[in-house]
Amino acid sequence: MTTLLAPDACRTMADLREQIDAIDADLIGLLVTRSRYIDRAVDLKKIEGLPARTTDRVAEVLDKVSTTASEQGLDPELARTLWAELIEWSIQREIRELGE
Fold first, then answer.
1. pTM for the full predicted model
2. Is the pLDDT of residue 80 over 90?
3. Where are the domains of the chain?
4. Is pLDDT larger for residue 79 or for residue 2?
5. How far apart are CA 57 and CA 70, in angstroms?
6. Helices and strands per DSSP (H, E), number in the chain
């Protein structure tokens, strides 16, 4: 993870944008790591005979994300919306790989 200036240490919009760009790069790196776990999930689902979409697990992840966001001061609805999109993308990827 990038070492960032505190928001109030940014003296110009250029400084602020540089920090936001660094955060975005870190987020992309985390999403790449997450997608590797999704790749492994495909392998394990094939072995275990599990479907791409597991409704209970989707609900569990969304609830955890919402709670974690709230605890850390992020709008839980924003987190839930972002993760719902991320999860759906992952499921569609799994469906293609699993041949469902």
1. 0.85
2. yes
3. 10-98
4. 79
5. 20
6. 3, 0
8 A C-beta contact, residue 96 and residue 90: no
Whether residue 22 contacts residue 2, with contact meaning beta carbons closer than 8 Å, is answered with yes
User: Is 42 within 8 Å of 94 (Cβ atoms)?
Assistant: yes
Give the residue-averaged pLDDT of 62-81: 98
CB atoms within 10 A of CB 42: 18
* Segment (H or E) for 92: helix 76-98
pLDDT score at 100: 84
Q: Under a CB-based contact definition with an 8 Å cutoff, are residues 52 and 95 in contact?
A: yes
Q: What is the mean pLDDT of residues 21-41?
A: 96
Fold of 10-98: Chorismate Mutase Domain, subunit A (1.20.59)
How many Å apart are CA 82 and CA 72, to the nearest integer?
16
Residue 1: the pLDDT is: 82
